[in-house]
Specification:
This protein is α/β, with parallel strands linked by helices. About 40% of the residues lie in helices and about 15% in strands. The chain folds into 3 domains: about 180 residues, 3-Layer(aba) Sandwich (Rossmann fold); about 120 residues, TPP-binding domain (Rossmann fold, 3-Layer(aba) Sandwich), CATH 3.40.50.1220; about 200 residues, 3-Layer(aba) Sandwich (Rossmann fold). The chain is built from 21 helices and 17 strands. α20 links the parallel β16 and β17. α12 packs parallel to α20. The longest helix has 22 residues.
Length: about 550
């Protein structure tokens, strides 16, 4: 077979797998520039049904794709060239694995004869992501005699990433070897499904009536990542007090500060704890759950059921049935929780007017997202805790990279989310600088993304840890707090984005409103008090909460 014919076969192969993905429901792809990935880049960009985002930094691009997949709840393709470009995806693949996000990770590769012989831009890409991916697929160089396998292979990649093949949804790695010439015209595609039907997610049905009867008991339901807003609303109908992590909508807020007081924790003690999805960030909640020693029931229908302390005694399939009378709890217990939460919220709202702290910044971001019906993206470390512990209940889609809990790629994730729905992101200054390459490509003119940077000159969470008092200040600052001298407004402006600094709450609120009306990226740098003052603020608030309650 001539080189030209082999290249045409290769182009047809690429056009076929893209066609199969489009038939399955593909709408979004993130492409990083590179030579070896040319055949698939051309095939993807030729389809009008697909929106192509082109981003130059592979690490940022992968988190951007992750954000888009989070917001749309659909698989997103990320395509990169061969060599170290593929390794740049590793952190995002780790997050997608643990957070159960549907990513189709496509790495171009050299053909087998150019591996291990010193060919440029060639590394070992076989099983590059190890067990982090749901499947590794390497079809080899496209051969015309194998054309009957192209669509089934593409379909399997889509189904596995989507969670349709009896494995949890997550990343799939497709490593595709391409030969030169890389540019060719595809021929006739092998036949596909005649009906053009798209794959759909199998519905998760409520669990059948079980032997567990908790009617009339004091039920505390703890939800996390994977539990939908609609499901949380149904959980409330069972007369359960529903609390959750920073990403959960319509749950009772202020749980961590409430449970820090022993008397309050005893009054709010449940008979039964129901668990769905991931876990909140609060160590105080985790401690109380251990101390209470309540009967813990877990439902697996919301995806992975996190149980790091091994407290779940009974695991039930599916989801709780809002019609089940044997699951209906004690309404008075729910009212007690709600009253405590409401009283804390009223005191915090009254304090906001004269407050300027990391807590008030987080609360303002949650309020702005709710008022504008924008998504909220929360950075790791202090932002996710201030949103979970001190902010009102979230009422719009809220996201955080809580699979691996790292600060890597948070800004890129936020921009990916913003391409689907206007978004407010709250990140720390170190997180912002860590992912500053996300600002290189920015977003299109139809996207509204507001990034609020809580600038406390370093990693604020470390000031809450033993290192802060165990080490000399200079040693602590160098190794852990890691303050950086950069002018963050100048950094954002240098990439062509609107940027401003604010130093009080009304300025921040005005900037948030304006940013959510302005196309593109708006960066708001909140110049905050020193990190040490933030520790004092949290301590004072925690000490005051119990005194705000009337029973």
């Amino acid at each position: 077979m001539s080189v030209s014919s082999a290249s045409a076969t290769q182009a047809t192969f690429c056009a076929t797998i893209v066609d199969e993905w489009v038939r399955s429901g593909l709408t979004d792809v993130v492409i990083c520039p590179g030579s070896r990935s040319t055949p698939l880049a051309l095939a993807l960009s030729s389809r009008q049904e697909v929106t192509c985002f082109v981003r130059v930094d592979e690490r940022s691009a992968a988190f951007f794709a992750l954000g888009r997949a989070l917001a749309t709840a659909r698989p997103v393709v990320i395509l990169v060239t061969s060599g170290t470009a593929a390794t740049e995806l590793h952190a995002a693949v780790a997050e997608a694995d643990l957070a159960r996000v549907s990513l189709i990770v496509v790495t171009a590769d050299r053909p087998p004869e150019l591996r291990d012989v010193g060919a440029a831009q060639t590394i070992t890409q076989v099983q590059l992501f190890s067990s982090m991916v749901r499947a590794f697929v390497e079809p080899g160089v496209a051969r015309d005699e194998a054309r009957g396998s192209w669509r089934p292979m593409a379909s399997r990649v889509w189904r596995v990433a989507s969670g349709l093949d009896d494995v949890p949804r997550g990343p799939v790695h497709l490593n595709v070897a391409f030969i030169e010439p890389l540019v060719a015209t595809p021929g006739e595609l092998p036949p596909g499904r005649d009906d053009g039907a798209t794959w759909t997610y199998a519905p998760v049905v409520p669990s059948p009536r079980s032997a567990i009867d908790i009617a009339g008991k004091r039920v505390l339901c703890v939800v996390g990542a994977g539990v939908s807003a609609a499901m949380i609303i149904e959980l409330w109908s069972l007369d359960w007090a529903v609390i959750g992590d920073a990403t959960s909508q319509h749950t009772l807020p202020y749980v961590d500060p409430l449970l820090r007081d022993d008397e309050v924790a005893e009054r709010l003690r449940p008979d039964v704890v129901v668990r769905l999805g991931g876990v909140p960030a609060s160590k105080v909640l985790a401690q109380r759950l251990r101390e209470w020693d309540a009967h813990v029931v877990g439902f697996t229908g919301a995806g992975f059921l996190a149980d790091p302390d091994g407290l779940v005694r009974d695991r039930l399939p599916g989801l709780p049935d809002g019609r089940a009378t044997h699951l209906r709890g004690d309404a008075a217990f729910v009212q007690g929780w709600a009253q405590c939460s409401r009283q804390v919220g009223e005191h915090l709202a009254a304090m906001d007017a004269g407050s300027w702290s990391e807590v008030s910044v987080a609360r303002a971001c949650v309020d702005a997202a709710a008022a504008s019906e924008a998504a909220l993206v929360v950075g790791s470390s202090m932002p996710v805790r201030d949103v979970e512990w001190w902010s009102p209940s979230r009422v719009t889609p809220t996201f955080a990279n809580r699979g691996a809990n790292g600060i890597d790629g948070v800004l890129s994730t936020a921009l990916g989310v913003a391409t689907h729905q206007a978004a407010v992101a709250l990140v720390g200054d170190i997180t912002f600088l860590h992912d500053v390459s996300a600002l290189v490509d920015g977003v299109d003119e139809d996207t509204r993304a507001v990034v609020v940077v809580a600038d406390n000159h370093g990693g604020g969470i470390f000031n809450f840890l033993p290192q802060a008092t165990a080490l000399e200040t200079e040693h602590f600052e160098k190794l852990f707090a890691t303050p950086r001298p950069h002018d963050l407004v100048a950094v954002a402006a240098a990439f062509g984005h609107h940027a401003q600094r604010v130093s009080e709450l009304n300025e921040l609120r005005d900037a948030l409103r304006a940013g959510l009306e302005r196309p593109g990226i708006s960066v708001i740098v909140a110049a905050l008090p020193p990190r040490e003052a933030n520790v004092v603020t949290h301590s004072e608030l925690n000490a005051a909460v119990a005194g705000w309650l009337t029973w």
